[in-house]
Specification:
Layout: H1 3-7, E1 10-12, H2 13-19, H3 24-32, E2 40-43, E3 46-50, H4 51-63
Antiparallel strand pairs: 1-3, 2-3
């Protein structure tokens, strides 16, 4: 079993808006441009983002200021 799947948690779409101050449409545009972590499809109607990747993305932005 891949240990990364156990240690990394997913952020649901309803939760991502409380962490990242962007609309879902803007997050989608950033993903398509390769400027935001790609979502993980976990079901037909369910997606999530790897928490560690989103946190690293935020840390990179804070470090660049």
């Amino acid at each position: 079993m891949d240990r990364r799947l156990i240690t990394n948690t997913l952020i649901r779409s309803g939760e991502i808006a409380t962490i990242v101050p962007y609309s879902m449409n803007h997050i989608r545009r950033l993903e398509e441009a390769g400027q935001f972590p790609k979502r993980v499809r976990v079901g037909a109607n369910r997606v999530g983002w790897v928490r560690a990747e989103v946190e690293q993305w935020l840390n990179d932005r804070m470090g660049a200021r």
